[in-house]
Specification:
By secondary structure, this protein is mainly β. The strands form 10 sheets. It has a 22-stranded antiparallel beta barrel. β22 (293-298) and β23 (301-306) form a beta hairpin. It is globular. The two termini are 47 Å apart. The model is unreliable at 1-17 (pLDDT under 50).
């Protein structure tokens, strides 16, 4: 008898220490991975593994345990019911969802129906089917983000009429923007590895309350693979290997990742290597996009080489490697500690649009490209679950990043090569807290510190004698700092109405020292010491379980950075931008209204309208240096320009989405984006905004049957006439097509694409497609590089 009592006690103790649950698909009864199990206050959260299993001992006795995964109806179950069901949960798939899990809105896991912002989400399954070559392509296939390209090794997102340093990138919750993110097009997003992504989210509209400076048009949040623990005494091993080929640029990609988990320790290792040849554009389209020549150095002379294949865009080839290593440790149910290391490096690559520029009938440049772009990040995150008076959950992120980029240019038959290199070291600390005061009220608050140290050098070398000497750098030697504190509250007024409101104060400092050896600037240093207060309020009203209304009003800001204040560069032919140390922050005021409606399991409609006002906008305007409006720069007389708080801008538009369940595995979906913007000019007149893209979208028809998924889609962009181009874009004959009057314009275009994925074995999946089936020659608005012509893609994935 005593033995039975003892065994019962031991069993009870072990049950309280670890309780394993299994989640399966209600139809197929197969285990479901990445199901998020948590409570309403988001104070506790675990994920199921590849076996559909998770340890939920910490949820013992709770009455509001919620199971969520994109593509499945969320379930709310109490612990007693789970016990009665022998800790097995069956989730029903759902074609259309209003309630999906998002994390970008407040850095915490939330239900999208409680968030007033519009959020677009891409899962690992979406990424696998679409097969994007880079993270920029990943954003583009979403249908919600417009991507501009000046070279193959790049991609600059545009969201709601804003781009570059008015958008914010985060990777695993860490800010990626640096003090040299510029107003021109940015290529930093390609440092991220799409094959190592768990998911990606885009939060639309101003979000400075949570994220601080730069989050004016939106936030792009990337979550990489998270190490998973074992639920028993056997190691949990999971991984994949991938090989991919694409014909339009002879892509060769290899990827490998593996997760090894024990009960308290887990590691993830990921490696990707890409090699891209020169990109071939389509055969049917404007001849203005053709450049059937390139420059080659023969002996000591630059020679124009006529290409046999006029569709090849030379130079555009490059290669890239990405590495990631994560280690996770959970000593007990209250602590979760993770260290992550990321590294990315590209080869040198040409900026294609600069190679299309001509001077006196000959190429203007023999060389214009970027040196290896390198990014490295060390991150330590510490999460604590502790229901005390201060917080229920605390998350601390400490990060160190290093960015290296360079620009290399040499004019045609000029022996002088100029190399400018930038090195940015970034340190950041984020401490975020959440406190649940009741079932109806959640408080989010935190602090942030960011410091960037910028080093910039310039070298001019004679390529014949190999003698080099210093030349002007692109930036001054600088230090930029930002300190912020925020508070955000979510309150459920009724079961149907949820309000969110928040406020943030940010103080920013900048100290820059100018080298006047090469320019006679009337100053030697620049200093900024200012603050910015932002806030927002939003509401979500659930008319019923199928209809949700959203309203959001917020302010945002962007503090001047080193690129704004201190850059020296040739912005366009005949112009040079010089430093301006008298800049202040620009402010945005945003309002948007959204509606999501689901009609049974047949139709889903999502509509969002928005309007943003930007004041004290930092824009490039004519300037003077020591009383002169023009100076000799790089051998040419150039108009002096500088960034100034000289304009206001307005952007408005709509985002629309529709999904139709055609039954028997067929789904038709479409996304459409329309935006218009205008900005104030020197004389008070208005010009269309440069970064407000023409209307664009994607329409997909997909079919799913067991382990087969097929998709036919069309991607498209509207026309932008010459009169509707920004004044700063109208003269760029090198990147735009010409109309019958010889004026620049951006033609409309479309591509038809076929995607397929089939799991022919438990461990093997083949994925591929035929892109741009009709071989269109097209160029996305504001891009200097044409899109790929007809492209065959094939990848083989091995899972273990």
């Amino acid at each position: 008898m005593r033995f039975k009592i003892l065994m019962g006690m031991l069993f009870s103790i072990s049950l309280s220490m670890a309780q394993q649950i299994t989640v399966v698909d209600k139809t197929t009864m197969e285990p479901i991975e990445f199901v998020q199990i948590g409570n309403k206050g988001a104070t506790k959260m675990v994920l199921t593994d590849a076996k559909g299993q998770a340890d939920i001992a910490e949820f013992g006795g709770m009455s509001d345990i919620i199971f969520r995964l994109y593509g499945y109806e969320p379930l709310e179950i109490d612990f007693k019911t789970l016990e009665a069901n022998n800790f097995k949960v069956e989730m029903a798939s759902s074609v259309f969802m209003i309630n999906e899990v998002v994390i970008s809105a407040n850095r915490w896991s939330q239900i999208s129906s409680d968030v007033p912002h519009k959020i677009s989400r891409l899962t690992a399954k979406d990424i696998a089917l679409q097969n994007p070559q880079t993270a920029a392509d990943l954003l583009s296939v979403s249908g919600d983000v417009f991507v501009q390209k000046s070279q193959q090794g790049g991609g600059s997102p545009m969201i709601r009429g804003f781009a570059t340093n008015r958008l914010l990138y985060t990777i695993d919750g860490v800010r990626m923007n640096t003090a040299i993110f510029r107003g021109g097009n940015l290529q930093n997003v390609i440092s991220l590895d799409p094959l190592a992504m768990e998911n990606a989210e885009v939060l639309f509209g101003s979000s400075s309350t949570i994220y601080g400076s730069d989050a004016i048009g939106g936030v792009m949040s990337f979550q990489t693979l998270k190490p998973q623990f074992s639920l028993d005494d056997q190691p949990y091993v999971k991984g994949k290997a991938l090989m991919r080929y694409s014909s339009a640029n002879n892509e060769n990609t290899g990827h490998f990742d593996v997760n090894v988990g024990w009960e308290k320790w887990a590691i993830v290792t990921s490696v990707s290597a890409n090699k891209f040849d020169h990109l071939r554009q389509g055969s049917k389209g404007p001849d203005d996009y053709l450049k059937p020549f390139h420059v080659q150095r023969i002996d000591t002379v630059d020679v124009v080489i006529n290409q046999e294949d006029e569709l090849l865009q030379v130079p555009s080839a490059y290669s890239q490697i990405n590495l990631m290593q994560k280690v996770r440790f959970a000593p007990n149910k209250n602590w979760d500690i993770e260290y992550g290391f990321h590294f990315s490096e590209t080869s040198s690559y040409g900026r294609y649009d600069r190679h299309t520029e001509l001077k006196n009938g000959l190429p203007k440049y023999a060389e214009w490209g970027y040196g290896p772009q390198k990014w490295m990040m060390n991150q330590l995150s510490i999460t604590n679950y502790s229901s005390n008076a201060i917080y229920d959950q605390m998350s601390i992120r400490i990060a160190h990043q290093n960015f290296v980029e360079s620009r290399i240019d040499r004019k045609f038959n000029d022996n002088s090569r100029r190399t400018r290199e930038e090195n940015v070291t970034a340190y950041s600390l984020n401490a975020d807290f959440t406190k649940r005061f009741s079932a109806k009220n959640n408080l989010f608050y935190g602090v942030e510190y960011v410091m960037n140290d910028v080093t910039s050098t310039g070298i001019r070398e004679d390529i014949n004698t190999e003698i080099s000497a210093p030349t002007s750098s692109r930036y001054p030697q600088s230090e930029w700092q930002s300190m912020g504190v925020y508070l955000n509250d979510e309150h459920k007024i009724t079961e149907k109405l949820t309000l969110q409101g928040g406020v943030r104060y940010t103080h920013y400092l900048l100290d820059a020292e100018f080298d006047n050896t090469f320019f006679d600037f009337p100053f030697q240093e620049a200093n900024l010491n200012n603050g910015a207060l932002t806030g927002g309020i939003g509401a979500v009203y659930s008319i019923n379980s199928k209809t949700v209304l959203r309203f959001n009003a917020s302010t945002a800001f962007r503090s001047p950075n080193v690129d704004d204040i201190g850059k020296v560069f040739d912005s366009e032919p005949g112009a040079v931008v010089i430093p301006n140390p008298d800049l202040k922050a620009e402010y945005a005021y945003n309002a948007d209204l959204g509606l999501t409606r689901v009609f049974g399991n047949v139709l889903k409609i999502d509509l969002t309208a928005y309007y943003t006002i930007l004041e004290n906008a930092l824009v490039r305007r004519d300037f003077q240096l020591n009383g002169m409006d023009s100076i000799i720069f790089d051998g040419s007389m150039s108009q002096v320009q500088a960034l100034q708080n000289a304009a206001n801008a307005n952007v408005y538009g709509i985002q629309a989405g529709i999904d139709i369940n055609l039954t028997k595995g067929f789904i038709l979906s479409s996304k459409f984006n329309y935006q218009m913007g205008e900005e104030e000019m020197d004389d008070g007149s208005l010009s269309p905004s440069r970064h407000a893209a023409p209307w664009f979208g994607v329409t997909r028809c997909s079919y799913t049957y067991r382990k087969l998924k097929l998709e036919v889609n069309a991607q498209y962009q509207g026309e932008r006439l010459h009169a509707d181009l920004s004044v700063s874009e109208q003269g760029k004959t090198d990147i735009y097509a010409l109309d019958e009057n010889g004026n620049t314009y951006s033609p409309s275009w479309y591509t038809l694409n076929l995607k397929a994925m089939y799991q022919f074995h438990d461990n093997f999946t083949v994925s591929g497609g035929l892109e741009n089936i009709t071989d269109q020659r097209y160029r996305s608005y504001s891009s200097g590089l044409s899109g790929a012509g007809r492209n065959f893609v094939l990848s083989l994935i091995a899972n273990f």
